Amino acid sequence: MRLVIPETSIGTGPLDRPGSMLGDARGSIGHAADPAEESIDGSAGAALRFLATVLRAKSVVEVGSGTGASASWLLRGMVPEGVLTSIDIDAAAQHIAREALAAQGVPRSRTRFIAGLAERVLPKLTEGAYDLVFVDAMPAKYPAFLELGAPLLRPGGAIVFAGPVDAAQRQEPRAQALRELTRAVRADESLVPVALPVGDGLLAIARTEQS
Ligand SMILES: C[S@@+](CC[C@H](N)C(=O)[O-])C[C@H]1O[C@@H](n2cnc3c(N)ncnc32)[C@H](O)[C@@H]1O
């Protein structure tokens, strides 16, 4: 269950690309999250930690901070000096995530929380600079997040989507978006997908070294 606390001020700092302070994304700060949206469970979290470990991940992007469950798993797999950039429209949820990670002993220098719409923030991050991108927000936008997230990966990196494996059982327009995601992945020979039956399902997609 998602806790909602009063709106809070979250420092954002400059993003990777010059002149790209959040600006227009700030209007979204403080929107309450959909209470039906859940944190990832332990089996999906363990898979994320595994992926971050095998990738020796130093730089990771997360879309959908929520209250920090996936961030915690990712950080535990990343190298000790690795930095997680975590994006969410819900600054209040990010505040909870930040405090939860601090309580777990994660140094604040290892996280960069950005409050804003992922579709506006992702284009401002450096292309080819990330080992792993994890997407856990708005399945209807997954095709757009693939288009925005895949270019951020270094060759050999991976983008992972939460919960799209059972697209056929989902309702429109989400199912339509998930079929579109599958089509886009199949059409791009530089992408190597695998559906992982953990938690609500993960779709992990590697970007080949040749791309
Ligand atoms: C399923 S929750 C994330 C849970 C989190 N990964 C965890 O394990 O605790 C989805 C989150 O995505 C955020 N969100 C929804 N649409 C978004 C968007 N377009 N850009 C950024 N964040 C978004 C919501 O505010 C919500 O906190």
TrEMBL record:
Query: What Pfam families does UniProt report for this protein, alphabetically?
Result: Methyltransf_3
Entry keyword set: Methyltransferase, S-adenosyl-L-methionine, Transferase
- InterPro entries linked to this entry: SAM-dependent_MTases_sf, SAM_O-MeTrfase
Which CDD domains does the annotation name?
AdoMet_MTases
Q: Where is this region: Disordered?
A: 1-36
Q: Does the keyword S-adenosyl-L-methionine apply?
A: yes
Q: Which SUPFAM superfamilies has this protein been placed in? A: S-adenosyl-L-methionine-dependent methyltransferases
Specify the protein name. Answer: O-methyltransferase
